[in-house]
Structure formats: C-alpha cells, structure tokens
Amino acid sequence: MEKQLKDAIIAGVEQLYGSAPAESQITLQKTKKEFAGDWTLVTFPLLKLTRKNPAQTAQEIGEYLKENASIVADFNVINGFLNIVLKQGSWLDTLRKVDADAQYGLVPVTDQSPLVMIEYSSPNTNKPLHLGHIRNNLLGYSLAEIMKANGYKVIKTNIVNDRGIHICKSMLAWQKFGAGATPASVGKKGDHLVGDYYVAFDKAYKAEIKALMADGMSEDDAKKNAPLMLEAQEMLRKWEAGDAEVRNLWQTMNQWVYDGFDETYKRMGVDFDKIYYESDTYLVGKEKVNEGLAKGLFFTKEDGSVWADMTDQGLDQKLLLRADGTSVYMTQDIGTASLRFNDYPINKMIYVVGNEQNYHFQVLSILLDRLGFEWGKDLVHFSYGMVELPEGKMKSREGTVVDADDLMDEMVGTATEISKELGKLDGLSQEEIDAICTTIGLGSLKYFILKVDPRKNMTFNPKESIDFNGNTGSFIQYAHARIQSVLRKAAELNLSANLGDVQLNEKEIALISALASFPEVVKQAGKEYSPSLIANYTYDLVKEYNQFYHDYSILKEEDEAVRAMRIVLSRNVAKVIKQAMALLGIGVPDKM
C-alpha cells in the first residue's frame, strides 16, 4: 500500500509540476493520532520541484490524489504536511493480499540470488561457550535468516580457533592435573572439562608468579620465566613442529570440545553450513602473504618480519609474519578468506565480531582488496557491543564467565517456575510442559539479547527477560498462543473466515497498517544488519493486537461478516508474529 501511494504521488508531482521526483524525495510517515489520516506526506523535499510553499504544494498534491488515486478517500493539510486518508476498501485489499501469501514479507531466493557468507561464533577450543558467545551466535544466526528473507542465498560459517598458546595451556594443565580424566569418566561435557583445565592453568601460573616475585624477581620477569608458561611455550613449538604426541593429545582434547560445542549449538538453535579451523587456514595465510610479498604488495624489515604499509590509507604499518616466520591473527584471516573464496562464489562477506575488533577488520578489508579478493573492499564487519551482567565483566581465565549451558538451564527453569505460578501450564501433559517451557525460556533469552541495537553494549539480566507483560519474548509468545486458541475455537464452532466487505474501525485499520509495514521492516533490517528492528516491530504489533483484543469481541461478535474479518485479521497477525520471530531464531508455541 505504501508503494502504491508513493507511485501515485510521484505520478502526481510529475503531472502537476512537469518533473518526476526521485523515490527518495517521497517521505511518508504514519499520521499522528491527533490528526485525521493514515499517511502523512512531508512536502519540504519537493519544494524545489513545485516552486511553491509547503501549504500550496500539499493542497495541490492532495487534490490530485483524491481525484486520481484509487486508494485515497480524502486529505487535509496541517502546517504544510499532507495527511492522506485511505479508502476502507484499500485496507481490506491489503488484508486480502497478506492473507493470500503464506510467505508474506519474505523475498524468495532464486538461482540468480547473490550469495552472502556470514561468519559467526568463532570459539576457542580451550573453554566452553559463554554469554558473550550467545550474543554472537544469536546475532549471526538471526542475520542469516534476515538476509535469506531479503532474497539472498546464505552460507553460514564458523572459524574455530583451535591452535595457539591458549590451547596448549589447557593441554598442559590436563597432563599435570587431569590424572587421565575424560568426559565419559567424569560425566562432564568435553568443552566444560577442557575449560576447567584452562582455569587450573591460570591458578597454578599465578601461584608460580607470586613465588618468583617473593624471591625478588620483577613481575614482568616472573610472568616470562614461570615454569608453566615456559612449558606451554615449548608445547606450542612442538605442536608447530608436528610432534606426534602433542598432536595426538591436541586432537583428542579438541574433539572433546567439538562434541560439547555441538550439543550447545543444537540447543541454542544455531547451525553452520561450513566450519573452518585455524590449524588449516594459517598456513594458507602465510602462502598468500608470501605471494603478496613477491608481488611487491608487502615489505620486509631488517629482522625478516613481513609488513603491510597502509600509511597511504591513513593507517599504520601492520605485521603479517613475525621474524621467525610464524603467523598472526591477520595472516590467519587472510588464509581463511582464501579458502572460502575458493569454496564459494561469494558476493558479500559479513563477519559477526565484537566492536573491539573494528580496526582489525578495517585493515583486513584493505589487505584482501590488495590481494585481489573481489568482495574484500566491501566486506562487512557486523560490529556489535559487549554483553555484561549486572555484576560486571566476565573473565574466562578466572572462571567467572556465565556458561552458555548453565544460562540456558537457568532460563528454562525460570520459565517453568513463572509459568506454573501464573497457571499457564494447567491441563497440559508433562511432555507439553517441558516443550513449552524450553521454548519460552530460550525464546526469552534470545529476544532479550536481540531486541537491543546490536551496536550498543548491553547488560543481560535473566530476571527481567521473562515477563509476560513487558517487551519480552514470553509476552510475544503468549500473544501468539492466545490467537491460536481463538482460531482453534473458531474452527470448533465452524465459524466463517471468509473476508467480505465490512466497515473497519480504528483499531482494525491500525492492525492492518502494522501488517502492511512488515515487508519494509524486513528490508530495513537486512539493509541495516539489525535484528532489533524485527524484534521491536513484533512487540509493537503484539501491543496493537492486545489493545484490539481487549476492546473488541471476536468470536462473540454478532455481525457474521465482521466476525469473519476479525478471525482473518487474527490469523494473519499470528502468521506475521511467527514469521518475524523465526527471523530471530525464536519459536512460538500454539499453547501456553
């Protein structure tokens, strides 16, 4: 409807003033509640074309639309703003279109659709996933669904940081303190078990530093010469040299972690089409850097280290290979990019990584472009803010992180407790209760994180995330279940759901208007890489429906045509809620 109105305005301006405006010059807003109208045209961007004042421009365009646009019933002009009243029939036509389209608001993917690759998660194999990873995974998965909804082919990828000194710390601690423990022998997920040894290393390492300092060594020297750190560094050298014993332990412990990750990902409801590993990519990165060096794209310093000079871009020089030939993170990312470009015909690459890496990805974009990757210059760093708890920041080494598995357990437990207190589970089987409470708990967690502008830092408060009366996932889920209950009763009573010509009230028009804006919200969310636009649109839609539900009867409405229209309207509100929440990776139950 908005597109139809914009086209009519463009045609009118061209006919009235002899020149067609660009679509970007047509600014339509929802009319403020204190004025009569559905849409308001801001005339100021058009004044250079009309060469008249705002009031005259609005009056003339309004008269043209009333005479020539089939959807316009009337208009009024307030301070140069054109408030447009649409015909009742146009709202019903919009509802018919929404009702007829099972995939309403979603752009179909075709063979000609461009391919976007989205990288998210990027865990280390020395610890389990934590709250920070949850935000990353939820943003990445939701963004993938939103890009699909905008007509892109999507490849979801993960780069696992499976090598380096941090991995060796866990391995060394297991050798010293593990006594042969395995996930099966201690009854613990593998990622949790390995993470325990990462924490154990840090505690033992700090004790050694303290002891060395007590003997008169400086703190810096103590950190460098602590026996545990020297052993970990030696283990890393053996790994890079291909030592069979170290490599076997590395493979065993990493597999424990992968098995644990898989369980967490499955429960979280995220997945990947392709997983890359740094142990495979860093050598490819070294090759690419050396190729660039041979072509004169990079340079060496006296110690043999390889650098990129980006002073012409207003940046500094960037280390790519150390003097001993070992790689850095940038080298690894270049190698990963090379493998991905060989595997897929990428049109756009999106990295979901926290905002502390903004500079890194600015540099990576320049380097990939220099190395000839077609999408390098236009790569997207989906930079998001950190997530903290009310208590403050989390630290993996000290074991003070909020574990992802524990948090999901807590959320499901809280959902069960609150739902029972409110009587929302009465009459359901235990199997139904378990399924519903899992959906509510995890949905509340996802929604609470995704409703926040991803660029902002946020504080996650589990107690606030499950509230059946606020801007929460459970509030939206309950509204969907309520509508499904209405629809079930309508079916049981064999009530008609055929949409005829009826007089719509203000609340019904507001709901249809909200439904009509869904495709544009999906488009904008894809353009801005912002799941929060979907989340907050859905909340507003549910609030609008709840007001309608409170003010008007549906099943007990005596006018059969009005009742049928309200059933159709409810059905489509539920459809859009479900599709919007699916873009966030959130399920909506039919019963609550």
Brief overview:
By secondary structure, this protein is of the alpha/beta class. It is built from 22 helices and 14 strands.
* Class by SSE composition: alpha/beta
Total domain count: 4
**What distance lies between the first and last C-alpha atoms, to the nearest angstrom?**
34 Å
Walk across the major sheet and give the strand order.
7-6-5-11-12
Task: Give the overall shape, derived from the CA principal axes.
Answer: globular
Alpha-carbon Rg, integer: 29 Å
Give me the number of helical elements. Answer: 22
Q: How big a fraction of the residues is strand?
A: 5-15%
CATH superfamily of the largest domain: Isoleucyl-tRNA Synthetase, Domain 1
CATH topology of the largest domain: Isoleucyl-tRNA Synthetase, Domain 1
Name of the top-level CATH class of the largest domain: Mainly Alpha
What is the makeup of the main sheet?
5 strands, parallel
Low-confidence stretches: 393-399
- Number of E-type strands: 14
- Overall helicity: 55-70%
Mean pLDDT: 93
| Named CATH architecture of the largest domain | Orthogonal Bundle
